[in-house]
Design goal:
Metallo-beta-lactamase, Chain A; globular; 14% strand; 7-stranded mixed beta sheet; 6-stranded mixed beta sheet; Serine Threonine Protein Phosphatase 5, Tetratricopeptide repeat; alpha/beta; 44% helix
Length: 427
């Protein structure tokens, strides 16, 4: 009987650290972990670098890889165009003149898209990474790394549409396009002689979890059926080692097939339930509360969550208009009448008391709805702030252990909200 792999694997990413989380995968592959893992494939005629980390991580990855290998690099390949995969390309180009950068044909489009929203997305991601990055840079400084390498926006030397093959030092390398599952330029690297596949973050950040069909940091929707199809592409290769974008590889053909089957079938199940519910006239909230995964399809929810993905599927098909209120078609948000609700309730105390009753009954989301009304009308209301902090702290304790591993984004959001609410209260 399958024991879901997510229960025994780490969840969240972490920046590259000097002399940590690096080592050999086998006798010709070296790994350096970071915001996304970097891999060096060695051959008698030189090395192939897979991904380069964020720009600031590149010198750390170079240091870590050099502890295990001194082969010159001939190629660099990025499995997707996210900033944590290609930020160090120029750094390694400077170290290895003549280095050839290969990417999938959607690379330029994705880099342009990322650059267009860089300011917006950096601000939206800060709640999860800002404090951790400050500590990372302190450790870098202690190690003597103070002139931080810049982030690159590289142009590939070679791009391909569907499939690209080459050989180096007797090693056959096959690049297969899987656009849309994570980014429009996603690819997998297949080493057929060894039955090894490198997938990057094709199935999300942590392996064995439901895909993040929309990120709360802000990103475009990912199509559920495209994600499921990407899993099938990898399954059809019948790999014996799956080298992932985060954490350790997945070993064994049976384990890989079982996990990707569960992942694929979980996506199809949720997708079909959402579509059936939409056609039956059910509203989004009803579907979010009704749909769950059968035991046979159990996967983690450590990065994406089912209720978020249900919403993403619904909105990817139907857009933002829920047909619930005429106000959805206009530009005045509900918070504009929250002061009226406080006044009609006879003051904030009545709403806070009702919120406390909801919290005491375990109805924490309802409590937050009431508290949002008060705080939108009276931002400095001390009693509302104190109860809001308490509710967030309760939700945080639950979120840390939810679905065994907790959810990386939800935990980070709740921690940040508590920190900000406490700081605003003290101020």
């Amino acid at each position: 009987m399958r024991e879901p792999i997510y229960k025994s694997r780490r969840v969240g990413p972490a920046a590259a650290e000097f002399d940590q989380n690096c080592g050999r995968v086998n006798d010709f592959i070296v790994m350096s972990e970071g915001n996304s893992n970097v891999y060096l494939i060695e051959t008698p005629e030189g090395g192939i670098l897979l991904n380069t980390g964020m720009g600031f991580e590149a010198p750390v990855h170079r240091h870590n890889l050099a502890q295990f290998s001194d082969v010159p690099f001939r190629y660099v390949i990025t499995t997707q165009g996210h900033v944590d995969h290609l930020g160090g390309v120029q750094y390694f180009r400077d170290l290895h003149p003549g280095l050839t950068y290969i990417a999938q044909a959607g690379n330029a489009e994705h880099q342009a898209y990322d650059a267009r929203l860089q300011t917006f997305r950096s601000a939206r991601s800060a709640f999860r990474f800002q404090d951790e990055f400050k500590e990372v840079f302190k450790r870098y400084a202690q190690a003597g790394y103070t002139q931080i390498n810049p982030q690159d926006q590289p142009t590939p030397d070679v791009t391909f549409e569907d499939r690209h093959e080459f050989s180096l030092g007797g090693l056959d390398v096959v690049l297969i396009a899987v656009p849309g599952a994570e980014t429009n330029d996603s690819l997998v690297v297949w080493l057929p002689q060894h039955r090894i596949v490198f997938t990057g973050n094709l199935f999300g950040c942590p392996f064995g979890h439901f895909p993040n069909l929309v990120t709360i940091r802000g990103d475009r929707y990912r199509d559920a059926l495209t994600c499921a199809a990407a899993a099938q592409v990898v399954m059809d290769l019948k790999p014996e080692l799956l080298v992932y974008g985060h954490h350790e590889p997945v070993v064994g053909a049976e384990v890989i097939e079982a996990e990707l089957t569960a992942y694929r079938d979980a996506i199809h199940h949720v997708h079909d339930e959402v579509v059936n519910g939409m056609n039956a006239g059910k509203d989004l909230a009803t579907l979010q509360n009704e749909i769950s995964l059968p035991a046979a399809y159990e996967v983690g929810q450590g990065y994406g969550k089912l209720i978020w993905s249900i919403r993403a599927i619904w909105e990817n098909y139907a857009g933002w208009f829920k047909h619930e209120s005429t106000t959805e078609l206009y530009a005045v948000p509900q918070r504009e009448v929250h002061a009226d609700l406080v006044e009609l309730a006879g003051g904030a105390d009545a709403l806070i008391a009702r919120a406390q009753a909801k919290a005491d009954a375990g109805e924490y989301e309802k409590a937050l709805h009431l508290l949002d009304i008060v705080l939108n009308a009276e931002p400095q209301n001390a009693a509302a702030r104190a109860l809001t902090i308490a509710v967030h702290e309760t939700l945080l304790e639950s979120a840390k252990t939810e679905h065994v591993t907790g959810n990386f984004w939800l935990v980070g959001w709740l921690q940040n909200r508590i920190k900000r609410l406490k700081a605003d209260t003290a101020g």
